[in-house]
Amino acid sequence: MDDVTSDPTTSSSSSLTAPPRPRLGFLSLPPEIRLEIYAVLLVLPPYSKYDLPPCYHHHHHHSSSHTSSPPSTSTSISTSTSQQQQQQHDHRHYAETDRQRLHLTVHASLLLTCRLIHAEATPILYSLNTFVAHPSLLASFPRLRPWCSPVREAPALALVRRFHLTLRLDCDLPFTRERAARAFSGADELTVEAVQSMFLGVGCANLRVLEGVRGVRRVRIMGSTTGFEEYVRWLEGCMMTPEGGEVVGFEREDEAMSHRLNIPVWPVTMKEIQAHG
Questions:
Q1: Segments making up each domain of the chain, as ranges
Q2: Which residues are in the DUF7730 domain (predicted)?
Q3: pLDDT tens figures, 176-213
Q4: What angle do CA 232, 144, 150 make, to 5 degrees?
Q5: Is 141 helix (H, G, I), strand (E, B) or coil?
Q6: Residue of 48, 125, 203, 208 with fewest CB within 10 Å of its CB?
Q7: Alpha carbons 270 and 61: distance in angstroms, whole number
Q8: For residue range 23-69, what is the model confidence (pLDDT) as tens digits?
């Protein structure tokens, strides 16, 4: 009877087989890497009034693609070249539009994944994004973008630290100096966009409602500020002064006149008066 012996090659290969590696999940990543991923998915670029809602990009892309007609075979070479250039331009436009749409997308459903991700990502969503302040309630009911739903929950409102305020210079303001101070004092960032219906139509009197704001880390006043740039720079420094700190008042005569009359005052020389009769 023949002896049955095992194949040495088979026995050696089975003994060298490595055990299967455990599958690593998202929570196995280091916390600092997870925070970077949260920022990519949840933080938008700084707010701009020219931002368009994502639905506009989708509708504009599809409506343009459906209305474009196929090139005719009887067209001349110049027309064909023009169409090719237009198609290349449209392709670049749609690519840029898609990038803008992606940049304006917040993947907030990530917070519903689990408790740990919710606890780690919620402060990033509310603290690092710039929210549009309410026209009258200011820091109450802010919106991530004008087309988004307002933030109502008190825990989330407490995390919002960056605001964009659109302030009209040519209308009565629906909030007081005290309300503005309570809303924005101590914020991380405040961008004030001054607007008016007519260039040089009014002065900077409405901006004085912000003179009680203190302790903001970064302030930027932009928009229709022609004629009172020095006051704007002073007001930015005033709002960035720590709470309780001393602020030297703005005392330039022509700016003070602009505050009282609510119109810009320009220094005019006698020669200019004589030149205009």
A1: 161-271
A2: 26-181
A3: 999 999 999 999 999 999 999 998 889 999 999 999 99
A4: 110
A5: strand
A6: 48
A7: 58
A8: 778 999 999 999 999 999 999 998 888 877 766 544 444 444 444 44
